[in-house]
Amino acid sequence: MGFDFSTLGGNQAITVNLVNELSLFFDIHLIIACKFNKNLYKVNDSIKLGIFNFSENSRLRDVFLVSFFKILKYLISNKIEIVISSGSMGIPFVFLLKIFAKLKLIRCKIIFWEHESISKRGFKSMLFRKLAVISCDKIITVSDKILLDYVKIFKIKSNKIIRIYNPIDKPKIIEYDPNTKSLMSAGRLEKEKGFLMAIEIANIIFKKHKDWKWNIYGNGTQKNSLVEKIKEYKLEKNLILKCNFKNIKEEYKKHSIFVLTSQREGFPLVLLEAKANLLPIVSFNCPHGPSEIVKNEINGFLIDNYDINNMANKIDFLIENLNIRNNFSKKCILDFEKFEKDKIVKKWIELFNNI
Fold first, then answer.
1. Cα separation of 238 and 183, whole Å?
2. What contacts 354, CB < 8 A, 6 or more positions away?
3. How far apart are CA 78 and CA 61, in angstroms?
4. Count of H helices and E strands in the chain?
5. Residue in 68, 93, 11, 70 with CA at minimum distance from that of residue 265
6. Taking Cα atoms as reference points, which of 110, 162, 118, 170 lies closest to residue 141?
7. What sequence ranges are listed for the domain Glycosyl transferase family (predicted)?
8. H helices of the chain, where?
9. What local confidence, expressed as pLDDT, does residue 282 receive?
10. Is the pLDDT of residue 281 over 70?
């Protein structure tokens, strides 16, 4: 159970990708929330899908709480043995579920799947994570550094927490095209993705490289402010927001460099997809995912968070050095096997069989 599946996002895609694979081995039920019954993701026919609708102004966390007894009845009637909260929105629900489990009104194991960095989170967010630690039988983090933060902050025992990377398909045999003269970024157009900083970086880059373009794929609440900022800097011809696209996976191969400007990440799917498409990466070394995906100065550059000038300099360096781009591209798949779907699915199967 988890995210708003009426919007496109990395965590939604990862969840669907995983449950589709696990449905080959287990009886899977997927409980999701959607605006106006609009589910954008395709799941296998064998998966039982429970959809809870909510309006534009509703909070997703409230949807699960209001629907608690309906979901509880569903879990009991279907004899669900393992419940996974995919993301923090379901934490209040699983906290209540744990109470019912202690009263022996339901028998199930509870797993919290943490997709985000907990670095510099506010009190409310950390309180929810504390509830997850108390309520859940197992915590899954998507990076080693998130796991270490949980151990340090919540003093969680090592046998209660495990890191399992997000899965991705084994890279297909593709050729990298270093001559497209285009940069790519992708993500929700929200503050934490740092796209306002991307405009500042673009303003530096395109003073020198007017024949290059930077395409940003995504949608979100910052769209209008980003459009206005792009106009302010007169970057309309070079920095382009791509809000309407069918399949993001088909867009990577049209670019020469991938750029991530996020202020905070868990384990960004877009970086895995960029690596799978052999794109050299320039990324802020934000907490926490990029440093476990990008090998600095081997297949990309990791930049100190918020260092706009250094980010611009490294992008400029790659633009001007074709050989470096080619060398970085060749080394994108050096450690890719640890993220491959088959290996990750085996870890989840082992977890389910031993919890």
1. 10
2. none
3. 23
4. 12, 13
5. 11
6. 162
7. 176-331
8. 10-22, 60-66, 68-77, 91-102, 123-135, 144-154, 195-205, 223-232, 269-276, 308-320, 322-330, 341-354
9. 99
10. yes
Average pLDDT of span 307-329? 98
Give the list of residues 6+ apart from residue 103 with CB closer than 8 angstroms, or none. none
**HEC letters along 286-310:** CCCCHHHCCCECCCEEEECCCCHHH
pLDDT in tens, 56-75: 666 656 666 667 888 888 89
Total residues found in the chain within this entry: 355
Query: Is pLDDT at 28 greater than 60 in this prediction?
Result: yes
Q: In what order do the strands lie in the sheet with 138-141?
A: 48-54, 29-35, 2-4, 82-86, 109-114, 138-141, 161-163
Q: Write down the CATH superfamily of domain 182-337.
A: Glycogen Phosphorylase B; (3.40.50.2000)
Burial class from Cβ neighbours inside 10 Å (0-12, 13-18, 19+) for residue 8 reads middle
Tell me the pLDDT band of 14, cut-offs 50, 70 and 90.
confident
Terminal Cα distance for the chain, rounded: 18
**Cis-peptide, bond into residue 255, ω within 30° of zero:** no
- Domain range summary for the chain, segments of one domain joined by +: 2-167+341-354, 182-337
* Mean of all residue pLDDT scores within the chain: 90
Q: Are strands 29-35 and 2-4 parallel, antiparallel or unpaired?
A: parallel
Q: Please name the CATH architecture into which domain 2-167+341-354 falls.
A: 3-Layer(aba) Sandwich (3.40)
C-alpha span between 60 and 36 (Å, rounded): 13
Confidence grade of residue 258 (pLDDT, cut at 50, 70, 90): very high
Using CA atoms, how far apart are residues 197 and 191, in angstroms rounded to an integer? Answer: 10
